[in-house]
Amino acid sequence: MDVERKSGRSFVRARAALVAGSLGLLLAVGGCGASGDSMDSGAKAADGKAAPREGFADGDGGAAASAAPEEQADGKAAGKKAAPKPGGTHVIRTATLSVEVKSVPKAAAAARGVAEGAGGLVASENTERLDDTYETSHLVLRVPQERFQEVLRELAGSGKLLSRTSNAKDVTDQVVDVESRIATQRASVARVRELMDQAEKISDVVALEGELSSRQSDLESLLAQQASLKDRTSLATITLDLTPPDAPGDDGSKDEDPGFLDALGGGWDAFVTMLRWIAVAFGAAFPFLLTAALAVVVWRVLRKRKAARRAAPAVTAAPAGKDGASAP
C-alpha cells in the first residue's frame, strides 16, 4: 500500500509538472504572437501615415485622405520654386567679323550656304566693286542661337581673320517684364470691354471707346516689343566683311627698297607741285599787283603835271628882264 501511494503521488507530481510546463509554453507562444501583432499593427499604422488605406471616408482615414492633397500641393509649389524657368535665360548675341579672302564672290556664296545650312538667313548683302578685278562684300547673317559659335568658327576660318568682336546681352528681365505688362494690359482691355457692354449712356460709351483705343494701342506696342525681343533672342546677328588682299602675289620688296628712278620720279613730282603752287599764288595775287601798278602809273603822271605847272610862271618871267630893268 505504501508503495502504491508513493507511486501515485509521484505520478500526480509528474502530471502536475507536465501541465505546468505546457501552460508556460502556451503563455510564451501567446506573448510572442501578441508582440508580433502589435509590431504589425505599428508598421501598418506607419504605412497608413504615408499612404492611407482605401475604404476610409470618415474619421481618421478621411483626415489623412484630406491632408494628402494639401501635402502634395505644397510639394508641387516647392518644386515650382526650385525648378528653373521654362524659357530659361534670354540673350541677344551679336558678332562682327572682318576676313581677307582670295575670292570675295566665292567666300560670299560660302557664307550664305553656311548661314542657310544652320537654319538661318541672309538679312542683307552689299557688294561693292573696287576696280575691274577686286570687290568687297558686306553681309548681315541671322543664325539660331544654338548654332552661333559653330557658324562663327566656320566664317572665321574661310580666310585670313583681320578682326573679330562678339557681344552678348542678357534681356531675361526685360522679356519677363514685357510678358507681365502684356497680361496686365489684356486684362485691362477686357475690363473696358465689359464696361462698354454694360454702358447705357452715349457719353459713357464714347468715353469708354476712347479709353479702349488707348489701351489697345499700348497693348499692340507691347506685343511689338515682345516680337522684337523674341526675334533677337532666337536668332543671333553676325556682320561679315569680306575684302580681297591689298597686293596679291607681291612681297612688297619695291616699297621697302626704292631705287634711283623712284627717287627721281618723287623729286620731279615735288618740283611740278611747287611750280603749280607758285602759279596758283601768282594767279591769286595778280589782280592786286595789277591794281597797284596802275595806281603807281597814275600817281607819277599826276606828279609830272603838277611839277610842270609850277615851272611855267618862272619861264614866262625870264624875257621881261633882258636889259636888267623891270617893267614900270
Question: What does the model show?
Answer:
The chain is α+β, with helices and mostly antiparallel strands and 328 residues long. 66% of the residues lie in helices and 15% in strands. The protein has helices at residues 2-50, 59-82, 104-117, 148-156, 172-198, 202-234, 253-256, 260-317, and strands spanning 91-100, 121-129, 135-144, 160-170, 235-243. Strand 2 (121-129) and strand 3 (135-144) form a beta hairpin. Helix 5 packs antiparallel against helix 6 (202-234). Mean pLDDT is 74; it is low at 1-8, 29-86, 247-254 and 324-328. Residues 90-300 form the DUF4349 domain. Keywords: Lipoprotein, Membrane, Transmembrane, Transmembrane helix. This is Lipoprotein. The chain crosses the membrane at residues 277-302.
Brief descriptors of the model:
328 residues; alpha+beta; 5-stranded mixed beta sheet; 8 helices; 5 strands; disordered N terminus; disordered C terminus; transmembrane helix; DUF4349; lipoprotein; Lipoprotein; membrane
| Gap between N and C termini | 238 Å
Largest sheet: 5 strands, mixed
Question: How much of the sequence is in beta strands?
Answer: 5-15%
Number of helices: 8
- Report the principal-axis shape: flat
User: Using only CA atoms, what is the Rg?
Assistant: 57 Å
Mean pLDDT: 74
Strand order of the largest sheet: 2-3-5-1-4
- Report the strand count: 5
> What is the helix fraction of residues, given as a range?
55-70%
Structural class: alpha+beta
* Uncertain stretches of 5 or more adjacent residues: 1-8, 29-86, 247-254, 324-328
Write down the oligomeric state: single chain
H and E order: HHEHEEHEHHEHH
